[in-house]
Structures are given as C-alpha cells and as structure tokens.
Design brief:
- The complex is a heterodimer of chains A (about 140) and B (about 600).
- Chain A has five helices and five strands; from the N terminus they run E-H-E-H-E-H-E-H-E-H.
- Chain A has about 140 residues and is an alpha/beta fold.
- In chain A, strand 4, helix 4 and strand 5 form a beta-alpha-beta unit.
- Chain A is globular and about 35 Å long.
- The two termini of chain A are about 20 Å apart.
- With about 600 residues, chain B is α+β, with helices and mostly antiparallel strands.
- Helix content of chain B is about 50%, strand content about 20%.
- In chain B, the strands form four sheets. In chain B, strands 1, 2, 3, 4, 5, 6 and 7 form a seven-stranded mixed sheet that branches.
- Classes of the chains: A alpha/beta (about 140), B alpha+beta (about 600).
- The interface between A and B is medium-sized, with 20 and 25 residues.
C-alpha cells in the first residue's frame, strides 16, 4: 500500500483527524493529501503537473464549492474522468445518494457515529480501493 | 302558441265567439218560438175569418131560397097543384139572374102529375103515395159535390109545411149552384194575405176544392184547436189549421208557408252574424294589443333574466307601470341588483380566498423548503459533532485508558453510548420526517412476502435468538411499498425486541376480516407487553413505556408507523397487558372491505 496517494477532501478538522487516525491505525496509505474545501480540491486535482491520487475520499458538505460540484467537474475532465471517487459523508439523504451516483461516484459510504464502526469502514475502504480493486489504467 | 301574447287573444276569441254564437242562437230560437205563436194565431184567425165569411154567404143563400119558397105562387103550386105557370114565372126570374144555377121545385100530393121544364128551372109534382116521389131533404145548404166536372152545392128550402095552410101537398125548393160562380177566390186570398192558400171542403173530408176545382185535401188529422206543421212533396214546410163553417156541412183549411212566416227570424240571424263576428274580431284585436302591452315587459324581463343568467348583471328592466307587472319589474330589478351584489361579493371572497390560498401555498412551499434544508442540515451537521465526541472518547480510551482508571473508562463509555444514542435519535427523526414528506406511489403489495423477508433478515442478524414466527400467506394490500416496508419493519422489530427475554418467542402476522369493516392486519407477539392504560401514549414521538435499560429504543418507531398508516387512510391501535404480549392492529383505508 506504500506509495499510494489518497486525497481526503474534508472541511471538518475533527473528521479529518479521526479519518487520518483510522487510516494510520490500519496502516493504510502513508501518503495522504488533505484538501479543505472544493476550490482547493479542484485546484489540486485538476492541476496538470500534479500526480493524481489513487483514491479520492470526498465529503459532500464543503465551503465555497460543494462535493457534488467537485465530482461533476472531475467527471467532466478527461484526465480525472475515471479517477476512483468515494463519497464519505454524514448524510444519508436520498437525493445525495442519487445525485452522487448519477454524477459518477464509485462508492457512497456514510460515516457512522460509532468510531469503531467508522474505523472499520475506513479500513475496508482502503483495503478495497487500494489493494483489491484494479484501478483504471492511467 | 306557447307565448302568452298568442294565448290570451286566442282565449278571448274562443270566449267571445262562443258567447256570440250562444247569444245569436238563443235570440234566433226565441224569435222563432214567438213567431210560431204569432203564426199559429194568424193561421187560426185566417181560418176563422174565412169560415165566418163563408157562413155568411151560406146563410144568405139559404135566406134567398126560403124567400122564394115562401112566394105565394110557389106555395099554391106545391100545396094545391094549381097555377104551375105562375110558380114557373117566379122561379125563372131567379134562373135568369143565376144562369149557371139549376132550380128544381119538387112536390107531392093530390092525384095528378105535373112536370114542367123551362131553361134551368124544373117543376115536378107527383101524386102520393107514389114510389117515384123523392124523400124530403133537410133544409139548408148541402154538402159539396162534383157535377159535370164542376163543384156544386145545393140550397134546400121546405115548401108547404107551414101550419094553417089548406091543401094536401108538400115539397121543397132546391137550387144547385157551382162554386166557381161564387165571388170570391181572389177576395178570400186577399183576405188571408200573401204566402197563404186555403182549401174549402166537406166536413166529412171526402171533397176538397180551391173554389174552382177539386183538389187534394190537407194532410193529417184535422183539429180546430191546433195547427199542423208539415212538409209537402217538394219539402216546403207549411203551417195549417181548419175551421168548421157554422150552419153548413163545410169546413175550411188555411195553410201558410212556414218559411215566409219565419222570415223575420232568418233575417235576424243573417243580420246578427256579421255583428257577432265583428264584435269578436274587435275584442280579439283589443286583447291582442292589451296582451302585447302585458307581455312586452314580461318578454323584456325574460331577456334580462337570460342576460343575468349568462353572467351580465348590469341589465335592468325598464318598467314604469304601476300595476302588478310594474311591481314585478321593480322586484325583478331589485333581485337582479341583489344577485349582482352577492355575485360580486362572492367573487371578491373567492378572490380573497384564492389569494390567501396562494399565500398559504407559497408559505407552505417556503416552510417545506426550510424543513428540507433543516433536515438536510441536521443530517449533515448534527451528526458530525457526535462523531467527534464518540471518536475522541474512543481515542482517549485507546491512548490514555490506562491512566484514567476504571471509573474514567466507564465515564468515557457512557459518553460514547450517549453520543451513539443521539445519533440513532437523529436518524429516527429524519426517517419520521421523510415518511411525512414522501410522495405516495400506490401499488399492489404482497404483505406476507414483505413480513416473511423482514423476519428472515432479523433472524439472520440475531442468530442468538430462537424466535418462532407465523405469517398468514397471501395477504395483499394496496399501498406505498417503501412506507409499508418501514411500518412493517418497525412493528416486527418491536416484536422481535420485546420478546427478547422469552425463551419461546413467538411472532404472528395476519389479518382479521371485519364484517363491512376494513380488513384489520395484526402483528402479535408473546413478549413483555405493556400496561394497556398507556396504549394511547404509545404512538406519540419520544413516548416510551419501557426503561431503556430493559429495551433500548428511541420512541420514534411507533410514531413513524402511525404516520404511515394514517397516510394510507388507516388506523392503528394496540392491545396488551404487562407480560401478556402485545398485538398491534392496523387498517389501510386504500382497500375496500372484503
């Protein structure tokens, strides 16, 4: 799993800390870039000279440009069109689910309140997307 | 003809015409009756007058015969048979005055016969008793008879019967005259007037004459007291009567042409018809104009009413008359303005209500949007801090657990449990809100399969539990699949949860068909149950009848179920007693009673 880059798009510092803790606890991805809002995320991901991450963990409720807009922009760009994006959010609103999948999210995971469950979820995500899953060719 | 304007004149026409006809006819009948009475009298008078006249003539002839019979020369010849030439002389004087008369002096007695004839006078004397002697006739005028084609009559006078005269002879003087020689057919006709004819005949009825020749007699039975109305062969009607001529065996018959007698009645009828028709026509014309005056305002009113009915409330009737129609028009105008006003008022109210409704709808939309934003925000933002609380508590336990001691660790566990419970509360509340907002899509649903699937899932999730269940097969209902799934899941999960302390847990899902009532579905368990006294509290949000230590829960599940049932037009109720199990009954209005 070393050498894999994960982009965590998350505006809540607590969630950021807990996510990083869970990732570290399970020894997933040494290389994590944290992007704190939609503008920042798009600037990083759409920059041609930046290496693309292997997995994007995307929160939906973000300042300035929200998560669904970020997803839409990513899917519009040829370079990021096939980039694995997993929505990781507090919401289980139906319209968020529908809109997320419609815009091309690869997965939709709701953050559980229980940290143990949350930690398990993050571990499984890392395992699945970085180890088991065959990423699209670059 | 349905118009009043037509009906009134037609009615008047019928009325006036029938009155006119009845009046004219009655007058005609009365007049005919009066004329008939007058005619009867006239016929009677004419007959009586003719009879009197003829009686006088007959009396004069009889007197003349008697005078001759009383002549000395005649008497002498009859009584003694002497001086026949002198008697002949006397009679020939009469014979010369009446050329058409035949005079015959007949006598009997003595022993010798005498027979002398000169011109139209004959003298006869025969001895008695001689079979040839004629019998003595009755004195006076005799019956009419036909002689040589002419109608004649005789006047008889007895000679020699006078007491005190000497001699043995006795005889009579007979003068036979033709009727035509009698003056008077013209005179008589003039006497009885125009249009009348008369007959003259024997009282026995064997001979009738018009004075010149024999004619046919009058029809029917003769009676002097009545007049006879009859028709002749040419169908002309006559009125006739008869009278006995005094001192003679004669009778007279007078008949009048009935048409000429009734002429005034026919004239009246002829003159009254145009008057009746004219008056009727005048009446109809007058009523035509009158009905036009009456119906014009009514027609105007009908037109105005049509206009108002089609929504134009500005029309008014222009009626100025002070009669009933005027009052009707005024009332109509009043009504029209009232209707207009109330229509306007109604319109205004409808508009106001519409505005209010639009405002309410806008407010509702706004508040729905707010609610949506609220639950979205709750969904996103309220859980994040809980996650922090739980997450960092866990981090604290993991990183510094050994330094906190057992009490500290217990506190942190309680903090985490509380945070997780609150997370559950938030989720349940959001579910409740969603159930309320969700659009319903009705379809046929296999409730049995749904319940079976839910219970199977529960048994797989809780493999430590031994639960027996029975689902009545083939239960179908009309409803929203997602919402009914939520409701059924809540009820079955409750049953599952509250039978947790039963070694032999039993859950049942079925239906009870009420007669004429909607079908009542039930979820029954043999679990902890609850005090039925509080059953009504069961379906309010956050209402719990058990301690969370015994049976965990948020108290929102049954509120959600009730919301779903009521959105299906149904009702839910619960029956239970502590430790006796619980049964939840619910109906779905969307289906009809079976």
């Amino acid at each position: 799993m070393n050498g894999s880059l994960i982009a965590l798009i998350e505006d809540n510092p607590d969630d950021e800390a807990l996510t990083l803790r869970a990732l570290k606890k399970h020894g997933i991805a040494n290389d994590i870039v944290v992007l704190r809002d939609g503008v920042e995320a798009l600037a990083f991901l759409l920059a041609p000279d930046q290496p693309l991450p292997h997995l994007v963990l995307l929160d939906l409720k973000l300042p300035r440009v929200n998560g669904l807009e970020v997803l839409q922009r990513l899917r519009a760009e040829p370079r990021t069109r096939l980039l694995p994006v997993v929505i990781l959010t507090s919401s289980n609103e139906e319209r968020d689910l529908i809109e997320g999948y419609r815009l091309g999210a690869n997965s939709y995971v709701r953050k559980p309140v229980d940290f143990v469950q949350f930690s398990d979820a993050v571990q499984q995500l890392g395992l699945y997307w970085l180890v088991l899953n065959q990423a699209p060719p670059r | 003809m349905s118009s009043l304007r037509w009906r009134l004149p037609v009615l008047i026409l019928a009325l006036l015409a029938s009155i006119g006809i009845a009046f004219t006819w009655t007058a005609y009948r009365e007049m005919r009756h009066a004329l008939r009475l007058a005619a009867d009298e006239r016929v009677h008078n004419a007959a009586t007058q003719l009879a009197d006249l003829l009686a006088q003539t007959a009396a004069a002839r009889t007197a003349e015969s008697r005078r001759l019979a009383a002549d000395v020369a005649v008497q002498r010849f009859v009584v003694t048979g002497e001086g026949p030439d002198a008697a002949l002389l006397v009679l020939r004087a009469l014979g010369r005055r009446n050329q058409q008369a035949r005079i015959w002096l007949s006598a009997r007695g003595g022993t010798s016969s005498t027979h002398l004839t000169s011109d139209n006078v004959t003298l006869d004397r025969v001895p008695e008793p001689s079979g040839a002697a004629p019998a003595m006739p009755t004195e006076g005028v005799g019956a009419l008879q036909v002689n040589d084609g002419r109608v004649t009559y005789r006047t008889i006078a007895i000679v020699g019967a006078t007491p005190g005269q000497a001699g043995d002879g006795v005889g009579f003087l007979s003068i036979e005259r033709p009727l035509s020689s009698s003056a008077g057919a013209t005179l008589m006709e003039r006497l009885i007037g125009s249009g009348a004819t008369f007959r003259f005949g024997n009282a026995s009825g064997d001979l009738w004459t018009d004075l010149s020749k024999p004619v046919e007699g009058p029809p029917g039975v003769l009676s002097e007291s009545t007049t006879l109305s009859f028709a002749d062969t040419s169908r002309t009607r006559y009125l006739g009567t008869t009278a006995q001529i005094a001192g003679t065996p004669w009778r007279v018959w007078v008949q009048f042409n009935e048409a000429s007698l009734m002429q005034p009645a026919a004239t009246l009828l002829r003159r009254m018809w145009p008057w009746t028709a004219g008056l009727t026509l005048l009446g109809v014309v007058a009523v035509w104009f009158l009905s036009a005056r009456i119906t014009r305002p009514l027609e105007q009113m009908a037109g105005t009413a049509d206009a108002i009915a089609s929504g134009d409330y500005s029309h008014r009737v222009s009626v100025t008359a002070r009669d009933e129609i005027g009052r009707l028009g005024a009332a109509f105008n009043m009504m029209a303005s009232r209707v207009g006003e109330s229509h306007d008022a109604l319109e205004a109210r409808v508009q106001a209500r519409t505005q209010e409704l639009q405002q309410s709808a806008a407010e509702l939309t706004a508040s729905n949007r707010e609610l949506e934003a609220f639950s979205y925000s709750v969904s996103h933002d309220l859980r994040a801090p809980l996650r922090s609380v739980d997450g960092f508590s866990q981090a604290l336990l993991e990183d510094c657990g050994d330094r906190l001691g057992p009490d500290g660790q217990e506190h942190l566990r309680r903090i985490r449990a509380a945070a997780q419970h609150m997370g559950q509360l938030i989720d349940d509340l959001l579910k409740l809100a969603r159930v309320t907002r969700a659009e319903l899509n009705f379809e046929r649903i296999d409730l049995s399969a749904m319940a079976q699937g839910t219970l199977t899932a529960l048994s797989e999730k809780h493999q430590d539990r031994a639960v027996e269940w029975h689902v009545q097969p083939g239960l179908e209902a009309t409803g929203d699949a997602r919402l009914l799934q939520i409701a059924l899941t809540n009820l079955l999960e409750n049953a599952w949860k509250f039978t947790g302390k039963r070694p032999q847990a039993h859950i049942e899902f079925g239906v009870r068909n009420g007669r004429g009532q909607p079908r009542e579905y039930f979820v029954k368990d043999n679990g902890a149950g609850f005090d039925g006294t509080y059953a009504s509290k069961l379906f309010g949000a956050f209402q719990r009848l058990h301690h969370s230590g015994d049976f965990p829960g948020t108290g929102i599940g049954l509120a959600t179920v009730q919301r779903i049932v009521s959105r299906h037009g149904g009702q839910i109720r619960a029956e239970s007693a502590p430790e006796q199990g619980a049964t939840f009954w619910f109906t779905l209005q969307a289906e009809q009673a079976i």
